[in-house]
UniProtKB/TrEMBL annotation:
PANTHER family: CELLULOSE BIOSYNTHESIS PROTEIN BCSQ-RELATED, SEPTUM SITE-DETERMINING PROTEIN MIND HOMOLOG, CHLOROPLASTIC-RELATED. Residues 22-237 form the CobQ/CobB/MinD/ParA nucleotide binding domain. CDD domains: FlhG-like. The gene is flhG. One of its GO terms (cellular component) is cytoplasmic side of plasma membrane. Keywords: ATP-binding, Cell projection, Cilium, Flagellum, Nucleotide-binding. GO terms for molecular function: ATP binding; ATP hydrolysis activity. GO terms for biological process: negative regulation of cell division. It holds the Pfam family CbiA. This is Flagellar biosynthesis protein FlhG. SUPFAM superfamilies: P-loop containing nucleoside triphosphate hydrolases.
């Protein structure tokens, strides 16, 4: 009875959430997903929004490395009952808050139903604090990735103008379409040489998705290849902060502006879908 009451409480919350939840995902690693997530969180905070960046690559943390922070507590401590939510959240990291993952813990790569319930409980309390909660998911199509995407209002796929990245982006969209179904992906093409190249990649990916999956995808924009990003990463700095006029920063700023205008929240997640999320 207690478990049923807990599920009903969580279902009610899923239908009436304050924050917008954004999953940033990619079919493969090495496409700049985490750098994009960090800079997007920074940019949305600069627009006056209260943002939480949640490192959803639970067993292979990267957000803390990029930001040059050393968390005292991580998601592992919370799930083990050794820390409360407030003990783990790192406040005001360059204007936004961070919920760090752990690194090198294989058991976190596949959450149990109990652990997933604990994560949902966390957002029952965090939801009212934030305007945006961003999930920087693991690369690929693992179960944890799909859970966070199911959880989200907005699903963003990061890809490159390279055959393997485009193929893997399509594979991710295909799996999400099969497992979740009611989410229309948004696409960002990273590290392009020109806006024209970004448009070309998106147009071709869109045609394939429409033809084979009968699904519409939408374009958030492209981000140009930029040496300033490499400098920022090497120094564990946020590129949009230290190089605000760079091509990379302006690309992220343009995408952040578009996300501010997207009004997709309070998705009606069915009891069947929620139970799928629990595993």
């Amino acid at each position: 009875m207690g478990d049923q009451a807990s599920i009903l409480r969580k279902m009610a919350w899923l239908k009436d959430r304050k924050a917008k939840y954004i999953s940033i995902a990619s079919g493969k690693g090495g496409v700049g997903k985490t750098n994009f997530s960090v800079n997007l969180a920074y940019m949305l905070s600069k627009f006056g929004k209260k943002v939480l960046l949640f490192d959803a690559d639970l067993g292979l943390a990267n957000v803390d490395i990029i930001l040059n922070i050393a968390p005292l507590r991580t998601i592992k401590d919370y799930l083990n009952g050794d820390a409360k939510v407030d003990d783990v959240v790192i406040p005001n990291v360059k204007g936004f808050d961070v919920f760090p993952a752990s690194s090198g813990f294989m058991e976190l790569s596949s959450l149990s139903s109990d652990d997933f319930d604990k994560i949902v409980d966390m957002f029952l309390s965090l939801d009212k604090i934030y305007d945006y909660i961003i999930f920087d998911t693991a690369a690929g199509i693992a179960e944890n990735v799909l859970r966070f995407i199911t959880f989200s209002d907005i699903f963003v796929v990061i890809t490159l103008a390279e055959p393997t990245a485009i193929t893997d982006a399509y594979a991710l969209i295909k799996v999400v379409n099969m497992k979740i179904g009611d989410l229309n992906p948004y696409v960002v093409v990273n590290m392009v040489n020109s806006e024209k190249q970004g448009n070309f990649v998106f147009d071709n990916l869109s045609k394939v998705v429409k033809n084979f999956l009968k699904k519409e995808i939408r374009y958030l924009g492209s981000i140009k290849r930029d040496k300033n990003l490499i400098k920022a990463v090497a120094n564990q700095k946020i590129a949009a902060e230290v190089f605000p006029d760079s091509d990379f920063a302006l690309g992220v700023k343009n995408i952040a502006n578009k996300l501010l205008s997207i009004d997709e929240k309070n998705r009606n997640i069915s009891i069947e879908k929620f139970l799928y999320m629990r595993g």
